[in-house]
Amino acid sequence: MDFSQVDFTPEQLALESEIREIIEANWTPNYAHIAVDHDRMPVKVRMEFAKRGLLHPDLPKDQGGAGLGELELEMIAGIADEYWMPTNVSNSMLIPTLEKHGSAWLKEHVLPGIRRGEITTCLGYSEPDNGSDIAAATTKAVQDGDTWVINGQKMWTTWGNESDYVFLLARTGAVEEKHRTLTMFLVPMDTPGVEATPVWILGGGRTNVTFYTDVTVSDQYRIGPVNEGWNVMSEPLATEHGAGVETQGVAPVNGTMGQTFSRVFEKFVDASIKWAASRKTADGKSRLEDPITRMAIAEAMLDLEMCWNAEGELGKPMSAEALSRNADRMADIAAPEGLLDFGVDGSIYAGNIASERQHAPGTSVYGGTTEIYRNNLARRLGLPRPY
Amino acid sequence: MSLTLRRNDYSLTDEQGQLVDMLRDIFTEQSPIAVVRAAEPLGFDQKLWDTVKENGLVTISVPESAGGDGGGLVELVLAGIEIGRTAAPVPLLDQVVALRAFAALKAAGADLAGLDMDAALAGDLIVSIAPISTWELGSQLIPSGAVAKAVLAFKDDSIILMSRKTLAPQAQNEGCAPVAWWSPTDSDVATTTVLEGAQALATWELVQREWRIATASSLVGLLAISSEMAREYALDRKAFGVTIAKFQAISHQLADIHMDVVTARNMTLKAAWLTENEPEYRPELAAMAMAHATRAALRSTTKAAHVYGGMGITLEADISLFFRKVTSWSLVGGGQRRDLEEIARAIDTRAAELQLQSSNR
């Protein structure tokens, strides 16, 4: 057991300076935008990071990484967070999949670009008629000699409007066969017949619905064997869900999304304190001295500490729900200013409170609903499949 | 600005793992439900206490310099979890917290002449503390107060030692915890001042934190065993022709209970390690561990009993026994409200860090 502060080596301190310089030269924080978990790393930062192997810092140098360890990864995440800078690149979880299952052609022509940060990808899993039930996908891929013809529609294709490829789940047999007739493809988004149209979500974020009409791609874009798509897809999904993550005792234990939401939550607690400090009650005292306000913020702090302690797959559902619960309450406590957007007269930091209440509900849905997480957790507890 | 990072290593050493095994063996063998029930309503079993003494557990986390085994707060938490898992009717946690407090007081030059330290270290004299004495004045409920003859408390800027020659009568409670009313002005109570001034307050704050962590660990244990029992029942019980664990209405509750167990355990271990090793860092962590363990134990033992349906509310069901224990064990320290008041002090710390001042808007 060890929760002590890490003493950085000279190399690590140099890394910290380097990261700060890159971010300060290429990114202007927007303190009106509290939740950056749905946003992509700014392009200029991405290109600078890529040059130095910092996009996939844990990969060996000869694979486009920087050969760094868990501690350095945490440093990068911590510094980015300080500048309210989004860090999503979305590729990290695809690299091992391509290494394992990609065609020789993909490995030669696409994988290096992904490693270098020049090529970006998005995910094509959900459809209008199936979200959590991914194995019910109906987007069809039909083989025609050396090519495949894809027809269908995908939902929640976040970054689909700005990605080079989509990691696409397609049906290659009878739909009744569920997960036994699925195949994965890496489809170039500029292929004729691919179209992304925006869907705007609470809190102002964008995702997309993507249409695939007679999209024809070479067999070289297939990932893994035909009808083995379920297994090919499940590996990166499990990583996203925080399963089986081996830490070296530095990274927080609450999984990728748990950490991301907890960092948003941290900003939210600060925003709540800033709001309370900026307001006075009728008797002229600071809101910070008001017992009801103090209880609400103290409970938010308690929930935040709970989120950092929510191990593995528990991280996402617990932090998503804690965010929602506290955003609801603080918006209420901060009423009426709690409803005002950032920059509006009278909002000050309440802008963060209002926007977090808009953002929070999504965290219990995207990347897997909290119900799916509970199903998974129940399975891990040895309980039978749901009735 | 410069970045700071902390480790997040919750792993136990081999020795700590062996300690858990040993404690689990002792308490599952010596404190089965029948013993727990037989010890009610007082909530104390002399034979089990003798076993605890014989196994050297009374000094488990007492510094070597004070006659103990040199174990730390983490070891105390591990013991607390096992005590909670069996609802063991022994005042070990309060005893060890008080012994650690005596060690700290001695180190601070306090006068403990009125105390038979050898008897306390041997477990022949049961000692406890008054966890809410900075909060409530006068007469107050003391954990293990119905079996203890010496109690440390805080009064008028001083740490005082209250002693009785006879035992205080138990205040009846649903969880059958050996709690009792003690008052420094009671004619049966002899009171001596042990330490005064700023040093007394600083020492007492640490004592309170350690008591919270120890008590939280026992709640983690109660919670963990309730979780396991509810899971087994749900796998066993059939309704509508299937095992009820197949219903998401049940399995999701079990998942929620499990989340409470894991987070409460981790928060308590983390608070223990940091309180031991870096008491200046985030002093609110002990209150957080206790507040979360309390709310988690209250809500999740309710859910666990609910999984049992009607059986869960019968007194003969073991799950209802754990539900009852949670009520008494979690609330004797003042409940979440008191912990949240403590946590709220971190708001002021954070506001100062953010350099905020009230505006007049």
UniProtKB/TrEMBL annotation, chain A:
Residues 9-118 form the Acyl-CoA dehydrogenase/oxidase N-terminal domain. Pfam families: Acyl-CoA_dh_M (PF02770), Acyl-CoA_dh_N (PF02771). One of its GO terms (cellular component) is plasma membrane. Residues 122-200 form the Acyl-CoA oxidase/dehydrogenase middle domain. InterPro entries: Acyl-CoA_Oxase/DH_mid-dom, Acyl-CoA_Oxase/DH_mid-dom_sf, AcylCo_DH-like_C, AcylCoA_DH/ox_N, AcylCoA_DH/ox_N_sf, AcylCoA_DH/oxidase_NM_dom_sf, Mycobact_Acyl-CoA_DH. One of its GO terms (molecular function) is oxidoreductase activity, acting on the CH-CH group of donors. Keywords: Flavoprotein, Oxidoreductase. Signal peptide: none annotated. The keyword Oxidoreductase applies. This is Unannotated protein. It comes from freshwater metagenome.
TrEMBL record, chain B:
It holds the Pfam family Acyl-CoA_dh_1. Its cofactor is FAD. SUPFAM superfamilies: Acyl-CoA dehydrogenase C-terminal domain-like, Acyl-CoA dehydrogenase NM domain-like. The keyword Oxidoreductase applies. Keywords: FAD, Flavoprotein, Oxidoreductase. Residues 212-347 form the Acyl-CoA dehydrogenase/oxidase C-terminal domain. Residues 13-93 form the Acyl-CoA dehydrogenase/oxidase N-terminal domain. The keyword Calcium does not apply. GO terms for molecular function: acyl-CoA dehydrogenase activity; flavin adenine dinucleotide binding. Coiled coil: none annotated. Belongs to the acyl-CoA dehydrogenase family. This is Unannotated protein.
